[in-house]
Amino acid sequence: MSVEVPQSHLDLLERPLFAHLATVRPDGSPQTQVMWFRWSGDRVQMTHTKTRQKYRNFQKEPRLALSIADPDNPYRFLEIRGVVERIDDDDAQASFYQGLQERYGKSYPIPDAAVRVILNIRPEKFVAHG
Amino acid sequence: MSVEVPQSHLDLLERPLFAHLATVRPDGSPQTQVMWFRWSGDRVQMTHTKTRQKYRNFQKEPRLALSIADPDNPYRFLEIRGVVERIDDDDAQASFYQGLQERYGKSYPIPDAAVRVILNIRPEKFVAHG
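^ inputs. structure came back:
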């Protein structure tokens, strides 16, 4: 399926905003979390660890949804439905995670670098609101 | 299951903030939306119409999840897992919806009052972050 980012809402992907991520648990019920993300130009990328529930959720059900609202106007938001296409290990320094910290104006040690992964999410549908 | 609202995050339910709601589509994939809500003291209440996709989602899978972030500190958020316990018709004036408008500082006509419903969501788990 080919999808295009609505140009009217592209800024919501480019700004260091907070994505509300919905995944499906093994019992079929949904779960949400507020997450950092990065937009590569065609993928939403997030970091996670191999040891957490949400990571296990992806194994069973790679489809997910996320929404990003404009903090200056919460009636304006972008809804994305997508799929975890690939999970890569972050490197020994957790460089991807460090890049995210920089994007969000933070800097702190990453003691779990050894289990840090990069989620590559392929959007399958964008819905622009507001 | 008995659950208690974390007192540290009760304000996020009481303030007129925006909930990111996750539901599960009939094909098992998640869907998100940004929604108004009201906290009754033991239920999260939202309005919807009988004619929309998300309403149909609830019929098949009444379990949902939502997250509410503090706009003054997005690292502070409340995650709720719950279930649609009951769906009531709003009245002919859509009084519930009008009350929500007032809570959110809005006032406009409700042409779809005839199909407006009140979702009563029973929380089954709260997770306080930040």
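Strands of chain A lie at 19-24, 30-35, 38-39, 44-49, 63-70, 73-89, 116-129. Chain A has three helices and seven strands.
thumbs up if we can close this ticket
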